[in-house]
């Protein structure tokens, strides 16, 4: 638990005139489970998308595993990263998407084995064995030969998790993994994520509206608003005695939201 | 010499300049055939669309079959058919009219679908609203459905107008002196096909690019809420 | 005495075989062109993009018959000027003109279908560290192909019909044979009626094959499996 595995150093992200991340700074240590909460449009998903290299940055430096993500060391200081550098860095990360984004034209099994075979160069048999283990982990061993559209949303998302794990990432990013699910399917996905959180090597960064779940599994909570971290702390601290007015307001409104359902 | 214009075969450039007026004579025929063919396609397509929409299957089914048959057979063969078969039954038309008729028939299969798709795209809710207002069926059709269908129909028809123009060269086989035929005659006589045929290609490219951007402009600028008939 | 139409059949069927070959070869060339330039139009490289746009506009913007005559009559003269023999046998000129023409229309179909693939698919592919090439071949195109099939079906029938034009550069297809018989017998009504129905029949078979193919490539889709 020494050097941070993820470090945001004065990171700026803009969409046109709109500043999404405003000189953002934070660290995450190896093996830490961190949840980002905050109102929609606060930039929390953007943090994950920048880490997964789906979005570039306009200022600052992002470090992953001690190396700059969007930059490379040039002869004099940092230069923008090459495709090769990004390709190498992406190997450390995996992502679970809100809309699952499974490949609809592949069976469940192939969804999981395709990248290990094509990208990591794993043998087919080896990739298949690994995929079967992962399917067992997410409780879908019987569904290997089905196509995504034959599964429920919750099952699809569990495949999404297995697919990300198959690439053996050090860091797993969850972008509102249960937001697109019917309420009765949320539990099965949270169970799988909860199970994963007990694995001590895996660093997890989670964006979610499931406050109770965040409280159970997180080592630390970051509360985002308008592209900045307003408050951070342990779940106990942040949920029971928030220091900032804005945090209290948000938690209150989330509580109303949950009660209204 | 053709149409009273001499050509100058000194070099490619002088040839090109000297035959430009000749090609323009051919282009004029091409455009006439396009417009006449388009007109036939609009009218005949409308007839087919109405027949296909008929309540009786005895009417609608043959209309579908005819549309499919026209759509699945080549323009060239339809043209030959009209050109050689009609006279056997005493109908003798000038080659130009036969050609325009063939173009019109071929494209009526496509335009009839445009009418139908345009009318069907006007939502069910519009028809129900009209019924709720107690409008008669005829009035609903002319005042509610047609005005909303027109902005969808016009751009699609515009695309077929461009397609018809590109098919006019087929009429050269029955001696119509449209642009390509004129260019071939020039080629036959000057022993240079490269210049006249390339010029025809260039003129076509300009015409279709202009026409297509015109269609796109229409597509963007026609009012979405519909065009009243009055 | 056998009716005349039976005597017409053998040469017409011989022509139909040529028509069929022309359709198959030019459709195949057209598909290759469509993918090459449809993907090319979406390239990040401005030269590839410009070249693709030029190809698509030129072959869609000029008439097929103009293209056919250009390849058959004008190209050899160009070759002469630069000292290369570019005289094409009619069958090569025919397949080239048909394939290049239909390929330009197909390229727009391919481009549209590729763009219709959900952006989330690209994000998932990137997150799994696929290279752009692996993404295109493994994720995007397989999902875009079923999207293209209905339009490709129409283009294939269009191509079958367009093969009739090669009779004008004296290639012995079905229409050419019919013309020969008509010149000989003047029995226009019978010959052209037969010819129309033979094209119609071939088009129906082609449409049925394309439908089967469409179902085959879209097996994984909801409600199609």
TrEMBL record, chain A:
CDD domains in alphabetical order: ABC_HisP_GlnQ
Topological type in the membrane: Peripheral membrane protein
Keyword check for Hydrolase: no
PROSITE patterns: ABC_TRANSPORTER_1, ABC_TRANSPORTER_2
GO molecular function: ABC-type amino acid transporter activity; ATP binding; ATP hydrolysis activity
GO-annotated cellular components: plasma membrane
Keywords recorded for this protein, A-Z: Amino-acid transport, ATP-binding, Cell membrane, Membrane, Nucleotide-binding, Transport
Ranges where the ABC transporter domain occurs: 6-251
Family the entry assigns: Belongs to the ABC transporter superfamily.
Entry protein name: Ectoine/hydroxyectoine ABC transporter ATP-binding protein EhuA
Pfam family, one: ABC_tran
Gene3D superfamilies the UniProt entry points to: P-loop containing nucleotide triphosphate hydrolases
Location of this chain's protein in the cell: Cell membrane
Organism: Paracoccus aestuariivivens
Keyword Isomerase set for record: no
Annotated PANTHER family: AMINO ACID IMPORT ATP-BINDING PROTEIN, GLUTAMATE_ASPARTATE IMPORT ATP-BINDING PROTEIN GLTL
Entry-linked SUPFAM superfamilies: P-loop containing nucleoside triphosphate hydrolases (SSF52540)
Automatic annotation (TrEMBL), chain B:
Record InterPro entries: AA_ABC_transptr_permease_3TM (IPR010065), ArtM/GltK/GlnP/TcyL/YhdX-like (IPR043429), Ectoine_EhuD (IPR014341), MetI-like (IPR000515), MetI-like_sf (IPR035906)
PROSITE patterns, alphabetized: ABC_TM1 (PS50928)
Subcellular location: Cell inner membrane; Cell membrane
Keyword Cell membrane: yes
Native species: Paracoccus aestuariivivens
Protein name, as recorded: Ectoine/hydroxyectoine ABC transporter permease subunit EhuD
Lineage of source species: Bacteria, Pseudomonadati, Pseudomonadota, Alphaproteobacteria, Rhodobacterales
Annotated transmembrane regions: 12-29, 35-51, 193-211
Keywords annotated in UniProt: Amino-acid transport, Cell membrane, Membrane, Transmembrane, Transmembrane helix, Transport
Chief location: membrane
Membrane topology: Multi-pass membrane protein
TrEMBL record, chain C:
PROSITE patterns per UniProt: ABC_TM1
Native source organism of the sequence: Paracoccus aestuariivivens
Listed name of the protein: Ectoine/hydroxyectoine ABC transporter permease subunit EhuC
Membrane topology: Multi-pass membrane protein
Cited Gene3D superfamilies: MetI-like
Domain ABC transmembrane type-1: 16-210
NCBIfam families: ectoine_ehuC, HEQRo_perm_3TM
Origin superkingdom: Bacteria
GO biological process, one term: amino acid transport
GO cellular component: ATP-binding cassette (ABC) transporter complex
């Amino acid at each position: 638990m020494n050097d941070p595995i993820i470090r945001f150093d004065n990171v700026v992200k803009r969409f046109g005139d709109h500043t999404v991340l405003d000189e953002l700074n934070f660290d995450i240590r190896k093996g830490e489970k961190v949840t980002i909460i905050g109102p929609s449009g606060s930039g929390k998903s953007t943090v994950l998308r920048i880490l997964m290299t789906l979005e570039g940055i306009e200022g600052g430096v992002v470090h992953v595993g001690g190396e700059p993500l969007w930059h490379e060391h040039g002869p004099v200081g940092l230069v923008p990263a090459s495709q090769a550098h990004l390709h190498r860095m992406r190997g450390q990360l995996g992502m679970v998407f809100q809309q699952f984004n499974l490949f609809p034209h592949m069976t469940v099994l192939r969804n999981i084995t395709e990248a290990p075979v094509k990208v990591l160069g794993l043998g087919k048999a080896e990739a298949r064995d690994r995929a079967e283990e992962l399917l067992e982990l997410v409780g879908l061993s019987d569904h290997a030969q089905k196509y995504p559209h034959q599964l429920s949303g919750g099952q699809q998302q569990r495949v999404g998790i297995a697919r990300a794990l198959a690439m053996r990432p050090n860091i797993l990013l969850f972008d509102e993994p249960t937001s697109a699910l019917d309420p009765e399917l949320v539990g099965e996905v949270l169970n799988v994520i909860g199970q994963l959180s007990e694995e001590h090597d895996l660093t997890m960064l989670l964006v979610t509206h499931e406050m109770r779940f965040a409280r159970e599994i997180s080592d630390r909570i970051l509360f985002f608003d308008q592209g900045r971290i307003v408050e951070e702390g342990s779940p106990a601290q942040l949920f029971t005695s928030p220091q900032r007015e804005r945090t209290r307001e948000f938690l209150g409104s989330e509580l109303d939201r949950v009660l209204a359902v | 010499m053709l149409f009273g214009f001499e050509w100058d075969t000194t070099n490619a450039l002088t040839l090109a300049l000297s035959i430009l007026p000749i090609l323009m004579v051919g282009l004029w025929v091409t455009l006439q055939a396009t417009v006449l063919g388009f007109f036939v396609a609009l009218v005949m397509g409308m007839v087919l669309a109405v027949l296909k929409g008929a309540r009786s299957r005895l009417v609608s089914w043959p209309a579908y079959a005819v549309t499919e048959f026209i759509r699945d057979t080549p323009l060239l063969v339809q043209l030959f058919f009209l050109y050689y078969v009609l006279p056997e039954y005493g109908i003798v038309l000038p080659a130009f009219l036969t050609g325009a008729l063939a173009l019109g028939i071929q494209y009526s299969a496509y335009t009839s679908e445009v009418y139908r798709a345009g009318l069907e795209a006007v939502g069910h809710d519009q028809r129900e609203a009209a019924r709720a207002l107690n409008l008669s069926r005829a009035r609903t059709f002319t005042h509610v459905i047609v005005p909303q269908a027109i902005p969808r129909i016009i751009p699609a028809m515009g695309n077929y107008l461009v397609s018809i123009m590109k098919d006019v060269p087929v009429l050269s086989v029955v001696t119509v002196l449209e642009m390509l035929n004129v260019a071939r005659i020039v080629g036959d006589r000057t022993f240079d096909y490269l210049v006249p045929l390339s010029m025809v290609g260039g003129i076509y490219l300009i015409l279709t690019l202009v026409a297509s951007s015109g269609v796109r402009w229409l597509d963007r600028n026609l009012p979405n809420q519909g065009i009243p008939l009055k | 005495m056998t009716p005349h139409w039976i005597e017409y059949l053998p040469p017409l069927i011989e022509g139909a075989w040529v028509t069929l070959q022309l359709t198959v070869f030019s459709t195949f060339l057209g598909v290759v062109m469509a993918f090459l330039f449809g993907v090319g139009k979406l390239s990040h490289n401005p030269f590839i993009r410009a070249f693709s746009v030029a190809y698509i506009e030129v072959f869609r913007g000029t008439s097929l018959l103009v293209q056919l005559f250009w390849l058959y009559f004008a190209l050899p003269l160009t070759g002469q000027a630069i000292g290369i023999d570019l005289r094409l046998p009619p069958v090569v000129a025919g397949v080239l003109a048909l394939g290049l023409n239909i390929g330009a229309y197909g390229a727009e179909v391919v481009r549209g279908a590729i763009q219709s693939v959900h952006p989330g698919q690209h994000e998932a592919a990137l997150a799994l560290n696929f290279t752009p090439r692996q993404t295109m071949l493994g994720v995007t195109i397989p999902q875009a192909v079923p999207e293209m099939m209905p339009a490709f079906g129409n283009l294939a029938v269009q191509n079958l019909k367009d093969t009739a034009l090669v009779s004008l550069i004296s290639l012995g297809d079905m229409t050419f044979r019919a013309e020969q018989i008509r010149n000989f017998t003047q029995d226009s009504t019978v010959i052209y009626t037969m010819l129309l129905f033979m094209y119609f029949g071939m088009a129906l078979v082609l449409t049925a094959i394309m439908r089967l193919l469409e179902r085959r490539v879209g097996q994984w889709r909801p409600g199609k499996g």
